[in-house]
Amino acid sequence: MEGFALRDAGDEARAPLALRPVHLALVAFVVTLPAYAPTMGAFAEAPQFEAVADVFLFALFLAAVTSSAVVLLRGLQRPRKVFSRARVTTIAAVAYLLGTMGVLGLLFAPAPLPAAAVGAGLLAGAALPLLVAEWARAVAVPIDQALVLCAFVVLTASFVGWILALLPLLVLVPVFCLLLVAGVVVPPVAARVGDPALPLARPADTMRRLVSVTWLPLLGFAVYAFMTDVMAHSAFGVVQASFLGGAVAALVMFGVCFLWGRTPLLPWSYRILVPLMAAAFVVLGAFPAGTFPRDASVVALYVFYIVLALLGCAVLLAVVRNRELPANVASGFACGVAAAAALLGQILSQVLAVTDDFAPWLAVLTGAFVAVLLVFLGRTSWNELVAPRESAAAEESVLAAGSGAGDAAGGGTAGAARGEGPEDAGAPDGFEPSGRADAPGDAFELAEPSMQSTLEARCAEVAAARGLSPREAEVLVFLARGFTPAYIAKSLVLSISTVRTHVRNIYRKLDVNKREELIHLIDEG
């Protein structure tokens, strides 16, 4: 049972990821997902594939959207003990097995049975969000470890999926069923682990906080779900391109984590990595026909979209690990967004089935996502350049009045507390005050490892002596290094309002009124 235990919020955020047998089961779950285009593509030679596959997927996505909405709405309400989580998850696992194995049987039926395929899709789709929620609970880790884990899963799943695509159908079916069972047995076991109670909040505040943290990664994940479903119906070699693209994307993410793991990975990824991936696709796609291998641009496109999916999945795991929001709320929202995007892609691919040339649509939609990203980055850069001068007077008045207006944009919780200096409260998301070591990596590059260890040890002593919670102890280390709440929120994948709440609690428990007193207290510790 140790492999299924939820990680404690006080675990060291920068400890290396320890791979466990449960992670191999996660690979099996991903490889056998019917919504994963190469999974269905491996059965393309089955007699009833053309008549059954699209009908099954349409029903699956539709049921997944509906079930995700139910899971999300239930998570926003006060918990009610109707059925135990373990029992519900066990029922979901059985339903998912029946639905997925049922469609395998329909692929080899003597005659097409579209009505039965719809039933199998509804059964599997309704169960999918519940299984995803338990998987998120079982393997939730901090953001840097989550990126490594997601890259490992994608790399391994790409290799296993490539092997499955090479197997003859008589061997593929039993092997696929074994992997399917291996990927479904974990959620019912993980559901037996208790879920910590979280403070109740208004549904609107919970959703605002969730969207503020996850909107950009989940938008990228939705784009991935939409585009892979569209490309699955195109003339491209989707199976081979997706496997190669997944491997390349995983290697890219490994490099990011190992070379730039000391910076806030999400801001760095969206400011540098994602634009570079998009630029590679645009350049490769701009070559005239016949002058450059077309498959290269397809692989580049898959790399781009899988990188987006990796970021989205990593954010989901980090949000669940942080326990800022209920796991079923975060997973229900993410699963619903992805399923809705895939359903839209399924519909569009059917509407455009009269032509096999999907390349213009892929380029247009890729450009649309990059445009949204550029607008977001431009807004962030504008805040960094202009907001310090325009909002200084307003921030001081808010602090003087003790108002919480500075947190309204971050989730509706209380605002600046006593002890937060002007640089800490009311700062817009993305604003890092000048003169501080808040540029990505600066604090870590300027400090020797021994100094960092000493600082962390002092913070741990102070936290233990003053009764700080594990999350507050984690935030204390960032405060001691001179980082602002905006930077801490980016590093820990928390909303700024939540970080400011932790800062207020830290100041109250340490009986300090400003950052200088906090630093002095730690130095004396």
Radius of gyration: 24 Å
Structural category is: mainly alpha
Average pLDDT taken over every residue: 76
**Spatial gap, N to C terminus:** 38 Å
CATH architecture of the largest domain: Up-down Bundle
The name of the CATH superfamily of the largest domain reads: MFS general substrate transporter like domains
Could you give a short account of the major beta sheet?
Answer: none
Low-confidence stretches: 1-13, 387-450
Notes on the structure:
There is one protein chain. Residues about 1-15 and about 385-450 have low confidence and may be disordered. The chain has helices spanning about 20-30, 35-40, 50-75, 85-105, 115-140, 145-165, 170-185, 185-190, 205-230, 240-260, 265-285, 295-320, 325-350, 360-390, 390-400, 440-445, 450-465, 470-480, 485-490, 495-510, 515-525. It is built from 21 helices and no strands. By secondary structure, it is mainly α. It has 2 domains: about 20-195 and about 200-385, MFS general substrate transporter like domains (Growth Hormone, Chain: A, Up-down Bundle); about 450-525, Winged helix-like DNA-binding domain superfamily/Winged helix DNA-binding domain (Arc Repressor Mutant, subunit A, Orthogonal Bundle). Helices cover about 70% and strands about 0% of the residues.
Element layout with pairings:
Blueprint: H1 21-31, H2 37-41, H3 49-76, H4 85-107, H5 114-139, H6 143-166, H7 169-184, H8 186-190, H9 203-231, H10 238-260, H11 265-285, H12 294-322, H13 327-351, H14 359-390, H15 392-401, H16 442-446, H17 449-466, H18 470-480, H19 485-492, H20 496-510, H21 515-524
Helix pairs in contact: 1-6, 1-7, 3-5, 3-13, 4-5, 4-7, 5-13, 6-10, 6-12, 9-12, 9-13, 9-14, 10-12, 11-12, 11-14, 12-13, 17-18, 18-20, 19-20
